[in-house]
Amino acid sequence: MAPDISAPAETDQPGADREEDRQSPRDAGNDVIIRGESVVKEYQTGAQTVQALKGIDFSIQPSDFVAIVGPSGSGKSTLLNLLGLLDVPTRGTVRLRGTDVSTFSDGDRTTKRKHTIGFVFQSFYLIPTLTALENVEMPRMLDRTPKKTRERAKQLLRRVGLGDRLDHYPDELSGGQKQRVAIARSLINDPAILLADEPTGNLDRETGDDILELFDELRAEENVAVVTVTHDAYVAEEADRVVNLVDGEITDADEAESNGVVEQ
Amino acid sequence: MSWLRRVAAYFPTVVLARRNLSRATARSLLAIAAVVIGVVAIGTIGMGGEAFKQDQMEAFEGFGGTATVYPVYHHDGSGSINGDFSRQNINRMRQVTDGTTVLPIVERWDTLVQTPTGEVIITAQVKGLDNPGSFYDAQSGTIPDNWKRSAIVGSRIAENNDIQPGDRITVSVNGSFTRKFSVAAVLEPQGFADQLRADRTVFVPLDEFDDPEYDSAIVRVDPTTTSVDAATESIESEFNTRERNVYVQKVQEQREGFEKTFETINQFLIGVGSISLLVAAVTIANTMLMSAIEREREIGVMRAVGYPKRAVVSLLVAESSILGIIGSMVGVPLALGIGMVLNQVLLGDPLAFTAAGLRYVAIGAVFGIGTSLLAGVYPAWKAAKKQPVEALD
Ligand SMILES: Nc1ncnc2c1ncn2[C@@H]1O[C@H](COP(=O)(O)OP(=O)(O)OP(=O)(O)O)[C@@H](O)[C@H]1O
Ligand SMILES: [Mg+2]
């Protein structure tokens, strides 16, 4: 039903041949979407420096389902912002398909975000003046392909089970429905990776389960990797991998079920 | 309606902008009202000023080819002041101007005019003139071709003292004559541009003054065929040889001076009117700033999903521009409506718009849109500059 939405392979930027770049061929071979090495993120507040991430490594591959867990203030959102190219690390490197994101200008990062990354937020952040359909179209509204965009947006809304709510405004939708609109929105540009910051945080368990199910289906059908920050144990249970952050460090990032960590 | 939607889909920024404005209707309407006030202020002040000028300038109509030649008085050392044109002087003027109408005028101040009932008209001036029919039209009565032994009265004098053709008035000129004159005609109102100030004058034939010395001479050409300049230049070069003996005042120059004065006043008033547009700009900047702050997260999401900074700037500037465009769209017809009232009052024709007057309405509209656009730039830039991470916290 859906057209081919496998992410287009982005070519490595030529010319960058610093030491770290020797990693690039391996990244390409593994089809790694985004990789971080010794990533440090510091925030400067007045005279004080807060180290939100203290040198962590990570990599995300297609169809991954990674849950990031950890206590409040442990750096989960910070990590997600780096994965989402909303921010750059203070030290260490984050590579998007082998290219160091610190070589990108603000405009480059914006473009990469648009074509590679989908965002889902805890409080949905739908635009209240736009209908469900228009909200889904929003990331592509400036593309001057309104027909194509509309078709794709309708398809995605039907996909998330809201085919009968196209013309509803956000305040006419339930929380779960809003989050499903937001997920449809995050998929409009066929991203390779979907980043969600507590997507179920504002939803009851049942609705949260629906969302998780949706993530699973999307990974299977559209090959998207899903990275989600969560406080909900049942979300982490579903994940292939759990990244447990404590105070800016990964304490247990095993591929195995790490239920013990999640049940904190 | 669906075609409109389809067209609109190609201007997503405008669609988004319009939706955002309709979100805070009251606030948007207030900002629009500010623009409307500014546009109306500039438009109506400009148009009203033009209509007023037009009204005043109408007084100069018909005097275009007219100039007055005055003698320049010199102290000749013997204690008497020589001056005043003699009959000979007037003839020389006629010669050098080659057949142009040259009308000698006697203007006396030591005069007394009395109504038929004997009341003294203190505002009346007495002037001696030949052939006033070549200059003025009668409002009532007739100006005789061969004018002798009657008086012709200016409109203001006639109106204020209820004088009609056929009435007998008494005119006394100190040292010359005291005589009763039958009023032959009352003149049309001439306005302030008339150099003889006919409205306040009682004209008597020149013959009434024996051995006249002329106080001035009116030079007159048909302005549609010749310029009065040639005639006045000839007179000046004829008389002002060794010293300056005549002084020429052209109605045209007076008119130009007037026009300049009006323009200056008008520009000042429009400057004052522009302040209201400045206030509108501040209102819009404030509106947009509030709206940008309220929508910080939304804008953050847009930036996160791939909207470049410039798209955010365009969106907010589009919003402020829409406020300006709507304000101008409301303001222009309003200004034109008020302009029609002004035209009716000042010029007697509601549609008597001048190009200059309409230009001010256009300027008002353009400035209304322009200032709104500019007022949106700072809030837009501020909103776009915000990093999405900060906005989404
Ligand atoms: N903009 C900022 N300026 C200064 N410090 C910041 C900033 N953002 C985050 N921090 C600090 O970095 C650390 C990590 O914050 P982060 O938002 O990543 O935590 P989190 O794991 O997402 O917490 P929560 O579960 O409460 O959302 C915290 O100590 C926080 O105070
Ligand atoms: Mg967080």
UniProtKB/TrEMBL annotation, chain A:
Keywords: ATP-binding, Nucleotide-binding, Plasmid, Transport. It comes from the Archaea. InterPro entries: AAA+_ATPase, ABC_transporter-like_ATP-bd, ABC_transporter-like_CS, ABC_transpr_LolD-like, MacB-like_ATP-bd, P-loop_NTPase. The keyword 4Fe-4S does not apply. Gene3D superfamilies: P-loop containing nucleotide triphosphate hydrolases. Residues 1-30 are annotated as: Disordered. One of its GO terms (molecular function) is ATP binding. SUPFAM superfamilies: P-loop containing nucleoside triphosphate hydrolases (SSF52540). SMART domains: AAA. The keyword Magnesium does not apply. Residues 34-264 form the ABC transporter domain. This is ABC transporter ATP-binding protein. Residues 15-29 have a biased composition (Basic and acidic residues).
From TrEMBL, chain B:
The keyword Transmembrane applies. Residues 272-388 form the ABC3 transporter permease C-terminal domain. The chain crosses the membrane at residues 28-48, 268-290, 311-338, 358-378. It is a multi-pass membrane protein. Keywords: Cell membrane, Membrane, Plasmid, Transmembrane, Transmembrane helix. One of its GO terms (cellular component) is plasma membrane. It is found in: Cell membrane. Belongs to the ABC-4 integral membrane protein family. GO terms for molecular function: transmembrane transporter activity. Residues 28-236 form the MacB-like periplasmic core domain. This is ABC transporter permease.
